[in-house]
Design brief:
The structure is a single chain. The chain starts with a helix and ends with a strand. It contains one helix and 15 strands, in the order αβββββββββββββββ. It is globular and about 55 Å long. Strand 5 (63-68) and strand 6 form a beta hairpin. The chain is mostly beta strands. It has a five-stranded antiparallel beta sheet, with no helix packed on it. A four-stranded antiparallel beta sheet has the order 11-10-13-14, with no helix packed on it.
Length: 183
């Protein structure tokens, strides 16, 4: 109850690269740091997401992350004025891909790859995730450019592996982390 009393609402509008509203099931809006809650904008692109200063470390920035469900565009915007209505323009995004293998070089199907910001948050919430296919391959789409991400790879019976993926080079549409062996 105490945490709910101090919660605020982040409000905004999502627009595509042509300044048209993005709404409904086309996109997902998440505020970081956050417990694990996201919303879909309405048909006109407007959204409201609960948020609390208590979820952050002192001096830590907060971000709104918007990813489209088709994987082509995304955006990450720092929240500078939590009481205002922000406009978020989606732009081309990148994908992170790789392959997960066991110690003997065999593919691990159904391993999970999670992407979160590399920044230490009070609660590290994944921005996106993907499961490996029968060949051990995964692709995580619609990752905003402009920062480093932590990639965590988990599979039952293996130790979790954590890697860093840089997303600064806008000429790259895909960051290929290559093969990762879990032990």
């Amino acid at each position: 109850v105490e945490q709910l009393a101090s919660a605020a609402v982040i409000r905004g509008r999502v627009l595509d690269p042509n300044n048209k509203p993005v709404g409904g099931q086309a996109a997902r809006v998440t505020v970081l740091p956050m417990i694990s809650y996201g919303v879909e904008p309405n048909s006109q692109g407007y959204f409201e997401v609960p948020w609390s200063q208590e979820w952050m470390k002192e001096g830590q920035p907060a971000y709104v992350v918007v990813r489209d469900h088709w994987g082509g565009v995304a955006s990450m915007v720092e929240i500078r004025e939590p009481t205002g209505v922000m406009t978020i323009h989606l732009e081309p995004a990148l994908s992170i891909k790789g392959r997960v293998l066991d110690p003997n070089g065999r593919p691990i199907p159904k391993a999970c790859a999670f992407v979160s910001l590399s920044t230490e948050f009070k609660c590290r919430v994944p921005i996106a995730a993907s499961e490996t296919n029968d060949e051990g391959r995964f692709v995580i789409k619609a990752i905003p450019y402009g920062c480093a991400y932590r990639l965590s790879i988990r599979a039952k019976g293996y130790q979790t592996c954590q890697l860093t993926a840089e997303a600064d080079d806008r000429s790259k549409r895909t960051v290929d982390i290559g093969e990762t062996r879990l032990f």
